Here is the input.
Amino acid sequence: MNDAHTELPEDLARAAAAQAQRYRYKTWGFGEDIALRALLEASRVLDDPEPAEFVARLVSDWDASRGPLAAADHVAPGVVLLELHERHGHARLLDTALELGRLLTSFPIEDGVAVHRRDLDAWRDTVWVDCMALDGPFLARLGHATGDDAWTDHAADALLGYARVLQDETGLFVHGYDVGTKRPSAVHWGRGNGWALHGLVDTLEALPFDHPAVAEARERLDRLVVALVARQLVDGRWHTILDDPTSPLEASTSAFFASGVIKARRLALLGRDLVGDPALERMVARAVTALVTDAGAEGGLSVSDATPVGDRATYVDRPSGVFPWGQGPLILTFTEARLAAAGSPA
Here is the structure.
């Protein structure tokens, strides 16, 4: 893949990072993690300390004022905690990461996957695809940080547990799974497949290459990428529901899928049939072109609001705005292409 032709302009990336820092972050939701990780990457790639300083202040202030972690904290930015610990050597952040790891591994396992919110009646049996981008990558990185292979095995179990109940014969992922009824939800949500893509790539990045889970995870990654390529529109975009052409377009998909595929290619995670595939190259180039148009000079990508598992109307009637779950993958589309162009393996 010639990433020189799939890189966002630097001024757009800087504007996107500035937009991400204007958001009023709650502590925490599904979408915050990817924006904070992207800001750390932007700091590194652009050699600009400001985005990383913003992240460090936000996370440190939360960590200094929080109480014991509860079920709602399963979406805390674990990878960010470890990144900040590695950069600054703050032992407290590693302690918090370990507490988060213990929380994630304390949830009941049903059908091979952890059920996070038994405390909420409406969602007590629900498994979300969004969690793929948080749990596996964090637990695998925690294994690296501590030298404890048990965390690595937890990461692999989490990744494959989600994938086995959420990925279907199309190669795509559904948004949710109900452990009570043993039924997956019916919708192939566009951004949900972005969470799945990043979860697969980021966990594989941190797993040992010879871990028993790697072969299945890579096979599932290939199937997902093939399915995404087949469903892209010629203008570089995807529908909110990937296989429903009457559903609205969703700008976050272009950012999730471009950044995830560029990283998968950079880390040599894709199978032989996909390496150098012209269709994959066209997919990324078209997605980047769409992002340049959709983000504009101000760098704010308008995407759908936070979306629960639901029926078709749940997805097609969402309001839109500039949110972290759009800004994060937008920034990562830039940083991943820069790293790939520089020949960086990690």
